[in-house]
Amino acid sequence: MLLQEKHVPKTAFPTMYGHYEFIVMPFGLTNAPAAFMDMMNRICKPYLDKFFIVFIDDILIYSKTPEDHAIHLRTLLELLRHEKLYAKFSKCEVWLTKVQFLGHVISSQGIQVDLSKTEGITKWENPKSPTKVQSFLGLDGYYCRFIQNFS
């Protein structure tokens, strides 16, 4: 994300090689992820929950048919290009029939828990105080839709 010109001097820092300023928002800034997420939501809004899901810089494209998927992929790439954003191809995974996304495994069979992400829950020590119970519920609450009778 390009910074407004008036804010560039605020990012200045010295090194032994000289004085530098960011012209794009570095992810180390407190609000950078929220600002980037807001931008991505605005850019992708017409397609969100139709065939895109966006979480910061992770984008999931889902489709019922390979033909639809080709159209959806092209739509995303054209949208990014129009906004002068680019996907790093080495970090992209395309044409997958099964994908791990935000702690879930998504496939034509539906959405399941990514078991590698739930190891902490299964190995959690029995909570012995109200604070420990709250911590445990916060941890496993993310997966509550997969836990029968969770409330």
Short summary of the structure?
The protein has 151 residues and is α+β, with helices and mostly antiparallel strands.
* Helix-residue proportion: 25-40%
Order of helices and strands: EEHEEHEEEHH
Distance, first to last CA: 40 Å
Mean pLDDT: 89
Strand order of the largest sheet: 5-6-7
- Any low-confidence stretches, pLDDT <50, length ≥5? none
Q: What is the total tally of β strands?
A: 7
CA radius of gyration is: 20 Å
Shape: flat
Strand content: 15-25%
Organism: Mikania micrantha
Domain Reverse transcriptase: 1-106
Pfam families: RVT_1
InterPro entries: DNA/RNA_pol_sf, Rev_trsase/Diguanyl_cyclase, RNA-dir_DNA_polymerase, RT_dom
